[in-house]
Amino acid sequence: KEAEQQQKLANVVILATGGTIAGAGASAANSATYQAAKMGIDKLIAGVPELADIANVRGEQVMQIASESISNDDLLKLAKRVAELADSSDVDGIVITHGTDTLEETAYFLNLVEKTDKPIVVVGSMRPGTAMSADGMLNLYNAVAVAGDKQSRGKGVLVTLNDEIQSGRDVSKAVNIKTEAFKSAWGPMGMVVEGKSYWFRLPAKRHTLNSEFDIKQISSLPQVDIAYGYGNVTDTAYKALAQNGAKALIHAGTGNGSVSSRVVPALQELRKNGVQIIRSSHVNQGGFVLRNAEQPDDKNDWVVAHDLNPQKARILAMVAMTKTQDSKELQRIFWEY
Ligand SMILES: NC(=O)C[C@H](N)C(=O)O
């Protein structure tokens, strides 16, 4: 009977990378003071025995770090392992446990480069497992449920926290400390309650199988950096980043990706010297940059990041620039993904 049930359940692999979901604090009252990336994947799985009721689960420790320290090489390593598993006929879905700080970047990266319709679900937590009302157990349970569900196929990379199913493209960490941390300007795609998914909408942007990018063809990522716009800003950071080798600069602009008059000449000059200039917005939850509105992008040969926040714009720029150095192509890609 047990063997029969195992055959019916989906095979889900959990790739662990660290983060608060693997964190530990000194006491149960420490919900915000703790060390991330302390607990191994076997212990995490053992902490949620109910997983065995919804899927045949096995874990792999891909790395053990706090997500603010993730590098491009880490991203490539993780994405390549995801692709291998997605190709394997005995894997139905993949869950990635991840710190929440850069979870949105990893989820968007995988959404762009994984050529599969199998569910890939990225999950984290806001409180370590040692804290009162820790959120990691339920988030992980929900992630495995979503990853093992045929209904989740072909919907792009997903993120499950706080009972919501979010698009890995759209979602962003919008609140910290609180468990209601992840939001999308366009709303969640669905809910997951007691292991059952309820879907309400689909992403309109290109992803996974419909993406022109493939992790199997990517062996390195170009350096792309971000500089922040604010009152009294100077061009120092932009110039320094370019001098340090950035192939593209994401301008984390105010409002509609606007650029201070003190910075414009430096960005025009950098573009002439071959650096791509990509205007994004650091407006929380709902930045939306229009071409040729705040700045003459056609004249300057700059790109706009559409609704992507600066950190997501960095991810797309890196992936796009593995294929093209043409600013018009880059702009097309920014509209489509
Ligand atoms: N809640 C978290 O996971 C935060 C942690 N700093 C991380 O991103 O690894």
UniProtKB/TrEMBL annotation:
The active site is at 20, 20 (o-isoaspartyl threonine intermediate), 100. Keywords: Hydrolase, Signal. It comes from the Bacteria. GO terms for molecular function: asparaginase activity; glutamin-(asparagin-)ase activity. It comes from Pseudomonas parafulva. One of its GO terms (biological process) is asparagine metabolic process. InterPro entries: AsnASE_II (IPR004550), Asp/glu_Ase-like_sf (IPR036152), Asparaginase/glutaminase-like (IPR006034), Asparaginase/glutaminase_AS1 (IPR020827), Asparaginase/glutaminase_AS2 (IPR027475), Asparaginase_C (IPR040919), L-asparaginase_C (IPR027473), L-asparaginase_N (IPR027474). Substrate binds at residues 67, 100-101. It catalyses: L-asparagine + H2O = L-aspartate + NH4(+); L-glutamine + H2O = L-glutamate + NH4(+). Residues 223-334 form the Asparaginase/glutaminase C-terminal domain. This is Glutaminase-asparaginase. The keyword Hydrolase applies. Belongs to the asparaginase 1 family. Its EC number is 3.5.1.38. The lineage of its organism: Bacteria, Pseudomonadati, Pseudomonadota, Gammaproteobacteria, Pseudomonadales. CDD domains: L-asparaginase_like. It holds the Pfam family Asparaginase_C. Residues 11-199 form the L-asparaginase N-terminal domain. The keyword Signal applies. PANTHER family: 60 KDA LYSOPHOSPHOLIPASE, L-ASPARAGINASE.
